[in-house]
Amino acid sequence: MIYLKLFVVFAQIGAISFGGGYSILKAIIHYVVDTNRWLTLDQFNEIVAISQSTPGPIGINAATFVGYKIGGIFGSIIATFSVILVPIISSLTLYFFYRRHSENRIVQGVIFKLKPVVLGMIAAAAFSFIKTSLGTPLAVVVNICAFILLLKTNIDTVTILLLSGILGYEFFR
Question: Quick one: 74 and 155 in the same domain?
Fold first, then answer.
């Protein structure tokens, strides 16, 4: 029964995954943490951290890790498959539709209007992580420094992640 529930939940998440992996993290939080209570927010944040450090899209990686946590290897296969099923079908359908109607003003208007929705979904996911990542004054300083380094320098994101992880390990163990 858990496998069917995983399939339905992640198919629903996949159906609303406009804008890529980060935009669906809020939906995953809603279904996995809030609604089904399969994981705590801290456990989910750990999964997101692992998902960011592994190759591939973060939304699919998060689905794979959540599926594994809930239903083992078969759960990870089901969650991964179901989260990409609807987007693949939708993408192919929209591709063929857009190819025929790309010059249409209504089609262009719909695409233009979806941009703020995607931005809002990404912002909502970011604010969910801020709540748990700013637990101590040192964590606040590390987050602010990492943010400034990302904006103002050409330092690679992986380097900033590694430095932040080393600081976290040294000061929070």
Answer: no
